[in-house]
Amino acid sequence: MSCPHCEKNGASGASSFSEEERKNGVRIALAGNPNCGKTTAFNAYTGAHQHVGNYPGVTVEKKEGWTRCGEQKVLLVDLPGAYSLTAYSMEERVVREVLAPENPAETPRAVIDVIDSATLERGLFLAVQIRELGRPVVLACNMMDEARKAGMSIDLEKLSARFGVRAVPTVARSGEGLDKALELALEEAAKPCEPLFLSYGPDIDPALLKMTSIIKDRHILTSRYPARWTALKILENDEVLRAQVKAADAAAALELDALRDTLAEHLAATLETTPEAVVSDFRYGFIHSALKDGVIRKDDTKDRLAFTDKLDKVLTNTVLGPLIMLGVVYFMFWTTFIVGAYPQGWVEDFFGMLGEFMSGILPEGLVQSLIVDGIIGGVGGVLSFVPLILIMFLIVSFLEDSGYMARMAYMLDRVMRAFGLHGSSVMPFIIAGGIAGGCAIPGVMATRTMRSEKERMATMMTLPLMTCGAKIPVFLMLTAAFFPENQAGIMFAVTLCGWAVALLVSLLLRKTVFRGASTPFVMELPPYRLPTLRSIITHTWERGWMYIKKAGTVILAISVILWAALTFPALDAEKAAPFEAKIAAFNEEIHPLEAQLAEVQKALESADDASRPALEQTAAGISAKKDALEEEKAEAENALASEQVKNTFGGRIGRFIEPVFRPLGFDWRTDVALISGVAAKEAILSTMGTAYSIGETDPDEPDSLSARLAADPDWSRTTALALMLFVLIYSPCFVTLVVLKNEAGGWRWLFFSMAFNTAVAYAVAWAGTLAGNMIWG
Fold this sequence. Notes:
Helices cover 65% and strands 7% of the residues. It is α/β, with parallel strands linked by helices. The strands form 2 sheets. Strands 2-3-4-1-5-6-8 form a 7-stranded mixed sheet, sandwiched between helices. Helix 22 packs antiparallel against helix 32 (717-729) and helix 25 packs parallel to helix 30.
């Protein structure tokens, strides 16, 4: 993105930047509260010119990107969403360390603080602290379009004058005002900037002055932080900064702590409060005074009860809210199956015709088997569910962008607490697949915002039990095969089962492995918004493309590997001989019958009415005998194909573990698919497609995997139910395991997750088998 203001006027103040900054870019930080539109602004500025990584020492995502303002190159840093610079969470700690790094050369020259215009007072609380830290700030008052619709007007000139910073109206979604904000940030970056000085009243100021003097005199962290700011953070009982002060000067740290403790005792005795509360109150008092006398005006003709509040009275009602939420989830599944059935059928037909076509042009042998059974049977089976996946992602994107997903999290908070979890666990669960179609990997990463390590660990260990997008194709295939009359209901039940097991397992873990007290939870409910078509399509395509790309890369590779595992080594000639002899004997009987049938059919072409009935009767007799022999021959060929596959590496592994899973009704082919699912859950479907394709002896008549399983006498509704429950719960995929290991901080949690989840999955699937036998026999 290039800034037209700078192109017209020149990058004001650019001459104040160093040669390195003019060449390599001026560092500007984007700060703001969660859900203020900061990342939308970052994406608008940088487009595809982004780099995503992690900040050193923590697992918070780091995003940087490049843009230009006229001739000046700018490096933008998208800081994590935070409400404060006090290091209560990883995000707040990262924001502070980026704004005041150990290496002064990495300090951002200015900060664009993105603020939701509808909650200006709360957004300015962070801006005050950034100014107290001594960083130049430009306020990007975002979502001004929504503020105007709500009848709100903000006098930005008055706000700028009273607050001492420059303010710009912006709409990040459309890009309005972003160029101007960047131009002003560069101007502010080129000027000297003194820290904001606030008075904190007669109780705090004297102690603050003494503490500031000690810090200045001893030069404690003064190259990194303003002395008064350091003193404030000690008063606010910031554990991270207190540790830094102690490391720099242990004796001074004792003096400073003594002053803080004396003040804390005085405030507790006289005002029944704490230093942290007083500091916070005075900051909000400063903000309130800056906003009074017409800075914010509201149209009194507008309905005082906002549309969002009216809607929330119904959608988050104690009784109606959960019922509506369940209805929304069921509607999502119902729509997915009803609307998606047609395009899914087209895709299945396409891959069926493609397999038939390739079988016709390729000679029988390994190449034909690789293409038809390995690649088309494996990858094609996964891709046939793309229409259903896209429809589901479309609905999920709408729920997210509209603001309803946050309401679901709010309502589920009450449930979470009953099972030893935290309200902030809700969004990781939803992201991981609590509303089907998510992914455990970003869900695990989303737990970084949780302050309690015990609650975070319990949440991380149970997130893989959700219905992630990779499991959905397996469920869709099995419901199509065995529950065609109630697919939506079965999917709805599987999703609820995932929640039920996850909550029960969480309670068990919180009572045993991760014991500890619960922490309070506060969450922000964004206003309802009508999502833009572009936003929904973009989010749907991004998720859908990840699924397709995985099918074309990871699943393709796994399909080829599994085809080889289910093809080699070939059956010994000695073992194959009896089968081949039997097939040859059938051929010797069938070929003469084919010749006889051809002669009779030729005679029928010229037969008169008198002789036709006898010829037709003869043809029917020959055809019936031929069909019976061909059916027996097909059974012999299937027996040979089955023996060949059992003899392969994959077959040997599957048969070795088959006794373990036989009580659940799984045969060796299903067992091999479950092993491949540890690599990637999508591979379960492709492996079953490959295994059952190789077992087929007529490649000219390919059926979908659903049709094959439905026709297989070894499969039943009970088997399908057990497999769905097992896939839902058992070991996470390899990538999720690696992320769990990194986030939890040890290999033991990787192995714990594999073993514990698989054990729980076996128990639940076994219970499902018993229930299925009682229901369906």
